[in-house]
Amino acid sequence: MVDVNLSDAEKRYIVDGVKLGTRVDGRDHLDYRQLEIETGLVSTANGSARIRLDRTDVLITVKMEMEPPLLDQPKNGQLHFFVNCSANAAPEFEGRGGEDLATSLSSMLERVYSSPHTLNTAKLCVVPGKHVKVLYVDIEILECGGNLFDAVSLGVKAALWATKMPRIYITGEDGGELEFSVSDNPCDVDRLDVS
C-alpha cells in the first residue's frame, strides 16, 4: 500500500478527534459505516452477494462442483477462494499492484474456513472417499475505500448463506460406478449452515 504522510496539523486533528470521541468523517467513535448487503444477484452462480461498506464495494460468487475428496479428508468437502483486485478499485491496484493483497485475503479466508468451528465441510460429502462438493468462492474487489478485510469476510459469509446447491441423489450402480441424479427442482436444494 501507499505510505501516507500527514502534516502536524492533520495529526493534531486526528488526535483531538479521538479525545472528543469523533472520527475524521464525522461519525461518533461507536458509529458504524453504512453497510449494504444484497444476495442472489448472479443467476449463473450457486450463491452470490454484493457488499458495500461505505466506499468499499465487493462482489462474491460461489460455484459448486463435484470432485474427489482430498486423500487425508475423505469425508470433507472443500472451499477454494480466489480474489481479484480490480485495477479500478484503487490506484495502487493498477498493473500487478493488487496481487499481494489478493493473496493475503485468499490466505486469510482459507485459514478461517479450514477450521471445523467455522463451517462443517462434512456436510459437503456425497460419497465418502469418492465424491464431495467443492465450493469455488470468487471475490471481486470493485472499489476499495477501507475496511477491506471486514467487507470481504461479511460478503463471503453472506454469499455462502445464500448458496443453494442442487440436491444430489444416488440412483444406482452400474459396473462399479455410482449413478447420480441431480434435482432440477429449484426448491430441492441443500443449504450451508453458516451460523
UniProtKB/TrEMBL annotation:
GO terms for molecular function: mRNA 3'-UTR AU-rich region binding. InterPro entries: ExoRNase_PH_dom1, Exosome_comp_Rrp42_subfam, PNPase/RNase_PH_dom_sf, Ribosomal_Su5_D2-typ_SF. Its main location: cytoplasm. GO terms for biological process: exonucleolytic trimming to generate mature 3'-end of 5.8S rRNA from tricistronic rRNA transcript (SSU-rRNA, 5.8S rRNA, LSU-rRNA); nuclear mRNA surveillance; nuclear polyadenylation-dependent rRNA catabolic process; rRNA catabolic process; TRAMP-dependent tRNA surveillance pathway; U1 snRNA 3'-end processing; U4 snRNA 3'-end processing; U5 snRNA 3'-end processing. The keyword Cytoplasm applies. It holds the Pfam family RNase_PH. It is found in: Cytoplasm; Nucleus, Nucleolus. Keywords: Cytoplasm, Exosome. The keyword Cytoplasm applies. GO terms for cellular component: cytoplasmic exosome (RNase complex); nuclear exosome (RNase complex); nucleolus. Residues 32-166 form the Exoribonuclease phosphorolytic domain. Belongs to the RNase PH family. This is Ribosomal RNA-processing protein 42. It comes from Cherax quadricarinatus (Australian red claw crayfish). The lineage of its organism: Eukaryota, Metazoa, Ecdysozoa, Arthropoda, Crustacea.
